[in-house]
Amino acid sequence: MAELQEVQITEEKPLLPGQTPEAAKEAELAARILLDQGQTHSVETPYGSVTFTVYGTPKPKRPAILTYHDVGLNYKSCFQPLFQFEDMQEIIQNFVRVHVDAPGMEEGAPVFPLGYQYPSLDQLADMIPCVLQYLNFSTIIGVGVGAGAYILARYALNHPDTVEGLVLINIDPNAKGWMDWAAHKLTGLTSSIPEMILGHLFSQEELSGNSELIQKYRNIITHAPNLDNIELYWNSYNNRRDLNFERGGDITLRCPVMLVVGDQAPHEDAVVECNSKLDPTQTSFLKPGKLTEAFKYFLQGMGYMASSCMTRLSRSRTASLTSAASVDGNRSRSRTLSQSSESGTLSSGPPGHTMEVSC
Which pLDDT tens digit goes with each residue over 215-243? Predict the structure, then answer.
């Protein structure tokens, strides 16, 4: 019996030989800090090297959340404000996150040599299997913005069995038409690359207002040491192919999808059109509202986070969801995820304004 009592009081995590309890606590704290800071990796693919940063540890029987950023941004400037928001902490605790940087967009990236052939958006999508294989992850929930949303949608078309869900923010699934090309060329004659990218990230109303946020991103993009790389990513985005979504057809997304668009965003019409082409029983459409709560509800609908408390969302038990916001007064015309995520919303209306989720 004495021996049994000794076993019961043995440390659950035995100390290493010669290790004091204080040293063990310091090591545990250091490991936790490392996870909070993220671990950055690079892997070679058929189309060049890709860098990604992993936060947290894999959870049994749960997919990883994999993000892909828009043009002019990297994973930090695009997603860090969102995932640092207080309401996102419940999600962070329940999922490992993989933030992919498009080639040459990661912090400290060297400028590609003159004549470098940057991957197309389709080829960027084809890099993702190498990332998942490196990490030994079998499935993901993708979260993409702009060009990143297109890339994840293309990946889901090619690898439907590995995608459990998609959150696509400000996606334009259409290739540029001749009129678009003409307008793009004319704009290029009178505007710099940073100004054209800002026109992609923000609405004209926001740009005219020249808020502190606009000035911040204008400064970041204009003085980016990898501006040449950013231009290459921008060119690939403008040369994208049509995703050819067809409701009821063979080319469609097979997983649950949440489409998100800022009010009067540059590609609002494209997102609305995308919604009309996807399976209505699998697709939710979200306009300005509480993005973090909508994301939690989306995960809950997939069978995760069933006990999550989302008091500001009214719930629909039907498979098909259409989201609409009822917001009085002036609303932020948010184009970037980073802007909306500073408050965890797609709207900066007064407190109490909520996202209605209804049939």
Answer: 999 999 999 999 999 999 999 999 999 99
- pTM listed for this prediction: 0.79
State the Cα–Cα distance between residues 102 and 277, nearest whole angstrom: 27
313 in Cβ contact with 291 (< 8 Å): no
306, containing H or E segment: none
Beta strands (DSSP E) in the chain are 39-45, 48-55, 64-68, 97-101, 140-145, 163-169, 257-260, 283-286, 322-325, 355-358
Q: Let me know: does 159 contact 175? Beta carbons within 8 Å.
A: no
Output the six-digit token pair for 83.
Answer: 């995932």
From residue 296, give the alpha-carbon distance in Å to each of 92, 94, 114, 198, 302: 11, 11, 44, 30, 10
> What DSSP letter does each residue of 202-266 carry, written as one string?
S-HHHHHHT-HHHHHHHHHHHT-TTHHHHHHHHHHHHTPPP----TTSSSS--S-EEEE--TT-T
Measure the N-to-C terminal CA separation of the chain; round to a whole number of Å: 64
Q: What is the C-alpha separation between 345 and 339, in angstroms, rounded?
A: 9
Question: Closest Cα to residue 288, out of 276, 271, 305?
Answer: 271
Provide the pLDDT for residue 7. Answer: 37
pLDDT tens-digit readout, 129-161: 999 999 999 999 999 999 999 999 999 999 999
Tokens of 14: 């035995």
- Alpha-carbon gap, residue 18 to 11, rounded angstroms: 15
**CA distance linking residue 163 with residue 121, whole number of Å:** 18
Among 205, 192, 195, 125, which Cα is nearest to 158's? 125
pLDDT of residue 238: 94
Instruction: Label residue 350 exposed, middle or buried (CB < 10 Å: 0-12, 13-18, 19+).
Output: exposed
Alpha-carbon dihedral angle through residues 138, 162, 153, 280, given to the nearest 10 degrees: -130
Rg (CA), the chain: 22
